[in-house]
Known about the structure:
Structural class of chain A: alpha/beta
Number of strands of chain B: 11
Number of helices of chain B: 8
Shape of chain A: globular
Distance between the termini of chain A: 12 Å
Low-confidence stretches of chain B: none
Distance between the termini of chain B: 59 Å
Structural class of chain B: alpha/beta
Order of helices and strands of chain A: EHEHHEHEEEEEHHHHHH
Oligomer: heterodimer
Number of strands of chain A: 8
Shape of chain B: globular
Amino acid sequence: MSISRSTKKRLRAIEICASEDSSIRAFTKTKSYLESLFPKAEVVVKLSPLRNLPTGKIDKLSHDLASARVKDISSPIHSFEPMSGEVDYESRALKGEAKLGGVVYDGRMFEDILMRHFFRKRSVETASIVYTDRLVSTFSRDDLRHHLRTVVCGFPSIISVPGVVEAPAKPREYYVAKQMLGPEGTGGLRSERLKTLMKGKFIDYGDPRSSLVLQGLALQAVVHHITLEEFCPNPQCRLFNAHWQEDLIRTQVDSPQFCAEHEALLSDLSRDPLIKW
Amino acid sequence: MPIFEKSSESSVTRAIVSQFAKDMEGFADTDVIVIGGGPSGLMAARDLALKKVKVLVVERNNYLGGGFWIGGFLMNTVTIRAPAQKVLDELEVKYKMYEKGLYMTPGPLACSKLIASACEAGVSILNMTKFDDVVLREKNRVAGAVVNWTPVDALPRQITCVDPVALESKLVIDSTGHDAMVVKKLEERGLIKTPGFGAMWIEKSEDAVVEHTGFCHPGLIVTGMAVSTTFGLPRMGPTFGSMLLSGRKGAKVAYEHLKKH
């Protein structure tokens, strides 16, 4: 996707794709939220592109998805031939016969797969956001390892629903308590106890606060689409990229505000959503 | 008046040897060989045997059950998350609810009942026997296992010229835990590439183990923690529920395959 600097492009539409296991209705509030911020753009919600696929598409896609699995968290992903069991799992997952979970996909490869299979013909005037029930990561050059992500901004942007729970680190006391509560063999027991002990201090599966977080992440994706800028460095701004659950809850749930700079930007964009590349 | 009937050393020896020879002849060609007699392997073998499938469990120890005898930290309580407690109901294992969805039972009770149930279902056991290699057929399909006595490994190198024997089967199930010994053997031969990436705390690891249970290579099914190693799934978190349900799913996949072929 490229854009001429001399051509003024405007954001005409925001396309939200529900996660694999979600309905369109689950994203009604996200749609309304984005409509309130970008009244000049049409916001549409669709079912996941990874649902209801023809068999031929499933065969190709399942191989591609199996190839996007992160197999070594300490090195960038490289191409490999997936095992037949991995391809089979992806095929079953695409048909709705296997639950998603426990597998980490390289965010950039996942984006590339979505682009190649579903979004190639989108114009730059449409910001596409794909929610997914898969975990995604990107490799960090800072510490040379993969990190789970809540959002991978791109074309399309990817928002990981389980990533809201798994990606940002939990409070420090959670990890201390985890060490003290015993060995790995009693993992199920320990996990349940920890949740009781730390109730409310991190977003858990089924937590009603996650819908607000998912809205904020969608906004981050749209702002990235318009500006190509990565997140806001201000830890009080809703466009801040939270690495801790504490920051995520503060910026997205308890106090979802914008810094002065982004407040002004969003005000401008609400009048004229000019793409600023 | 003696309590026991009269017998002799030679009769006892003949009884053991003749039965073993008869069993071994049957083991040479079975429907399914399960490598590893832990909870997932026993569960898979039991469910298959209940469907009249001829199944052999190869176990390297002289006892079955693997890690199912004890919970964490050498403590006897094993934990099982719903819905796997339904398997305990089937095995007639008593358990207590620790909290909603989480159940506890003594490891020795659950393990011994599972072993008994597998044996009663008709599972054959070859214990003190280690998996050595795979039997391969067309397109590198796994079609059996090469095994040897476990004590052979403990012998001095100069007297270990003890050749193994090969057992043929329609399918092999790798239930060898984190070692994933059968899968690793295929990897040694360059037929498969496992990720081998370690622990990552993810809530859904138990689900992932069950969901990934199935074929990983033609003729080879993986169950239990071998699934985790084979597919690079997160290792932390699983309690024994996923081992039982993974074994059950492995049996289902194997049975459906046997019916088709």
